[in-house]
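ENTRY TYPE: paired fold submission
RECORD: A
CONTENT: sequence, then structure tokens
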Amino acid sequence: MSLSFPPFTRAIKVLLGINVGVFLLLLILRTTGEGAAAGIIVRTFGLIPHDVVHGRVYQLFTYGFVHWEFFHLFFNMLMLWMFGSMIERHFGSRQFWEFFLFGIFGAALTTVALAYTVGGIIHLSPDIPTIGASGGIYAILMAAAMLYGDQEVFLFPFPFAMKLKYLVAVLGFIALAGALSGGAGIANIAHLGGLLFGYLYLKLVPRRGLTFAFSEGYYGLRNYYHRLKRERTKKRFQVYMRKHEHDPKQYFDEYGNFRPPGERDKKDRGPGGWVN
């Protein structure tokens, strides 16, 4: 048995820097007597379902970079480093950003949807802000369980190893129990949303990611549009030629390629000559 630490990959370093920087800004404001300003930042960039449905859709992403308590930030960043670096090496930095933001967005969407449907049952109010990167981190945990489920890890401070798929199952059960019991101060719905959207990404999104799928779809539609334009132009030209009693075969070969004027009057000279 050996003890090793994951590397600080490119996207992980940027995410750590953003989250720690925002936390330090809020901490400085609070310690210098500007707690009201810190509260405005949280309510502006945190996830508030009421604000989202009234136009502040940017909150579906920005809430994932805001932390208020030190230990909330510490454990989120620890999990991000431990498991996020593993997933970034699998996806690559560009697609890892896409996957992480997909998890953040999915967790936020789940929170907003449930706040306006079964919020009274699960004690989720549309006016209470949700902050933290847990949605994206739980999506990362789901990806780790699906890709490296049999890999064993030690969960501090427990002195025994556990397979990743069982660890994520336990964390998912805790989040579900917390959501049903109305665990105060913990965004259990965001955790469950992150797990769900992490699963959906790996199951439904093409291997090279959403960006690749959208670009392929765009170029496919563009090429189809140009083919339709060429077909319409071809039909119009044929109608024009028939009206003027011209044979289109004089201008195009059997493959639809344009014949230069110098080749139109050439006769079939029979066998002989070079054959390529």
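RECORD: B
CONTENT: sequence, then structure tokens
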Amino acid sequence: MSEREPALIEIPRLSKIPFLRHGFGEARLKAGDIKKRGGGQNFRLLSLNQVHSNIVHIIRRVPRAPLRGDAAITDLPRVFLVIKTADCLPVLLVDEKKGVIAAAHCGWKGTLGGVLDKVVQGMMAHYGSDPASILAAFGPCISRRCYEVGPEVRRSYAAAEFPDSLFQPVPGRPGKYFFGLAAANRFQLLRQGVQPKNILSVHICTHCDTRYPSYRRDKDATGRMLSFIGRAA
């Protein structure tokens, strides 16, 4: 009996956009599978040298070597923007009216630095996007109930004017807090003018679901989950 193909999650609302190809893959999905499963055999893959930053690249042409940063925006056809995660939040964005796509890797450091703020601002400044027209899809990531952080993270987010409601005390562990990573990124999108109805989420906790890589669960033995978005024309 042959091994089943790795699962690929698609967001129904995004799948209705004729030119769009996208997906969130489980741990066994490899880079070589993306063209086949994503329906883009003639697409090029564009990955970033991710560094847990708020660096966003505007892609006018495909670079010869990976760029250092954690988000990319483009309107180029036949290019898959690829994000790698293992508990961090992958976010795929599209402005159907302008034909603009983006992908972001959102860990706690990049989120603190406002990486999604910068993505939306970049779509506006470089492509004329209206935030109210942007769709954003959140892939699997570590959930609040599994993401424990210390007081220094809470203080850093307070200084950056994030709401304290993102943090909940861990019972029986003074000074420790459960942190809502997805909620922090949702907050950024909302303050940039993205509509609540246009923020779409896959409610899967990577720490709990062993089909997905989790650094908190498996440490250095973990792999990476691949997420991608591209436009066919």
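NOTES ON RECORD B: Residues 136 and 199 are 5 Å apart (CA to CA). Residues 115-127 form the longest helix (13 residues).
STATUS: closed
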